[in-house]
UniProtKB/TrEMBL annotation:
Essential component of the vacuolar proton pump (V-ATPase), a multimeric enzyme that catalyzes the translocation of protons across the membranes. Required for assembly and activity of the V-ATPase. Residues 50-127 form a coiled coil. It comes from Daphnia magna. It comes from the Eukaryota. The keyword Zinc-finger does not apply. This is V-type proton ATPase subunit a. The chain crosses the membrane at residues 403-427, 439-464, 537-555, 567-590, 646-665, 771-791.
Amino acid sequence: MPLFRSEEMTLCQLFLQSEAAYACVAELGELGLAQFRDLNPDVSAFQRKFVNEVRRCDEMERKLRYLEKEIKRDDIPILDTGENPEAPQPREMIDLEAAFEKLENELREVNQNSEALKKNFLELTELKHILRKTQTFFDERESLMETESMTRALIPEDVTSRQVVAPHNLGFVAGVILRERLPAFERMLWRACRGNVFLRQAEIDAALEDPVTGDQVYKSVFIIFFQGDQLKTRVKKICEGFRATLYPCPETPAERREMAIGVMTRIEDLNTVLGQTQDHRHRVLVAAAKNIKNWFVKVRKIKSIYHTLNLFNLDVTQKCLIAECWIPVTDMETIQMSLRRGTERSGSSVPPILNRMMTREVPPTYNRTNKFTAGFQNLVDAYGVATYREVNPASFTIVSFPFLFSMMFGDAGHGLLMTLFALWMVIKEKPLAAKKIQSEIWVICFAGRYIMLLMGVFSIYAGFIYNDVFSKGVNIFGSGYKVNLTDEELKHHHSAMLVPDEANGHYRQTPYPFGVDPIWMMAENKIPYLNAYKMKISIIFGVVHMGFGVILGIWNHRYFGRSMNILVEFIPQIIFLVFLFGYLCILMFIKWTKYYAGAEDQTLTPGCAPSILITFIGMVLFKYDTVPLDGCDNYMYPGQVTLQKVMIIVAVLVVPILLFGKPILFKIEMNKSKNHAALHNQNGTAEGEDVEVAGVPQTDGHEGGDEPHEFSDVMIHQAIHTIEYVLGSVSHTASYLRLWALSLAHSQLSEVLWLMVLRKGLMFQDWYGGVLLYFIFAAWAALTVSILVLMEGLSAFLHTLRLHWVEFQSKFYAGAGYLFVPFSFENIMEVQPGEE
């Protein structure tokens, strides 16, 4: 069974000729079945043999990222054919480097030219607006100079107010500035020049493109009139400080008109050149977009190969590379064939050598999975990677996880919604995977699509068992009850009890074929009935789940050669669990089958049925009722008290066995080892080498294992384990009551949404009732999906996860291993191009 236990791994030593090493590692990367060890742990990354090749690959990746950024900047779609090109040969690196260098230089040159042209175009456009806007200012110049304020500010006091300043005595500058800087610019001019300047401005309606960033900016044209060289210098410094661009503006209308014609001509020429430049740039990027995915794959494969080769050792002749790697035993032949293919591709005549090595090091854990089982294996690995070759719970989680989830989420309608969503992801998995959506929530949901599918299907099943579909019961087969009351009885009684007795005719004596009878959905005592039912089945399935976990420990004990642990651990554990909580489950079945309404014997009627909880507490405390109720028996079966006392005594007696059994056995083994070593010392004092070899197993016998070495360590470890198991059996059994609690909460929330939302919409009978129902149904559907499916589904998922990690896996699963991480191109390519 592939998932029952991890693959058997072996450590191999690999000898490769230097010329064939690259091709052989490339073949192993395509295969993805070898995890290489670093044989140069003390050598820094900058001192390894192939560091220059890795740097060249980094440089090629940088150029490709630059190309990708430019392609995305122009919104050019990147072609993804799904091809997986082979790793290029080392000699092809030069061709790739030359192609990328040529592309980068060409693109940078085009970008620089385009930026220069756009900058020139911006300047001409701003000059065009200046020439247009300032014409209005010059037309108003004479009237502005005649105003009283200008006369006081610009004309000396000894000149009469009737004198007019000649036009050549006023200077001016014109330019453009960002619109948001204009108010501060105007205030600074006024303060620095003390009001001795006159500023006119007008907004440029169209947005201008920044040649550096490509953003759209809004600017304004301004013209400043002043008198004197000192003010001119001051105005220019202020313009420079606010990053305003100044342009020459002729004084005469004829010169301005001539300059405007020249500017318009140059703008038209620039538009033509810019268009040709952009077309050329677009063609270069479109051609690159067709191949950039394959280029990324090739470069990353080359880089990963050289990274792996840096883990190898060189022999003294510098002609052979030595590597060590973990590989699955079953794939030895496949790996040897791939090595032979790599040797043939490289043209080498020396075949590679693959030798198995003996080691005490614990191998990595490798569980083969597919797209269906991978999600469940990830759930187990999130708790802890399985210790090498121990029982893997993932194969059992495939069934138990969705089943326990459905017990909490049990609603056929909500389960159908989850099933449809998961089924859509399963059917469309290839196109959805090709889109490579990076949303974290989507990635998690898509990776667990098969888990969601099973959870939805099991929830539909549990919903029909609970007879719960969007909080309403369905009557498929016809109820086993009928109302056998007259009209007069119905008038005088607000409610009536339907006793399943053959005498009164309320019960057809035939149970509902599948699930809960739909009449319970209308009963006033629905919640007490369902609570009792769900509480009991939660305990039953919890004890079965934990008991199965304890039983799985047998396979671990047998495989790792710990046969005595079956006697001192497994048997006491299973006795303690079964004699207490297993017996509790048996009492539930006895109560279900023995007591019933309409029984001829009064002692078997429901009123005489004892409380399971009180019975169990009395069993543990050795307290029993001596006075029975009228017409009833104290006990459910003969000899109950004797059997319960025996079971409690046995359950208590196995605790010391669980506590001291393993330490005592360990002490005995230690004494045997000491006697064995002493015997060797007496018989082999003259043969020092024999003594040394005989001593090796004593010092390294437990290397790589998880067993303590000292008796005190074993005693403390076993004491902790015993306390944890005994107390955990009680708390873990109670923990399974969350199956009942979450199921109750889910059904009640669903019922509240029905009563408070959708039922209100169905009560309107006028014409507007249909309109209101449309909006009310939308609100009900939104609340159902967001609260009952998403939030409640996530809550049930987390509680199910806890039941598996703590209550189930703690009985047999150590989870102290480490993952097998092979050198695989497929895993490397899962990282998005351009990401590290």
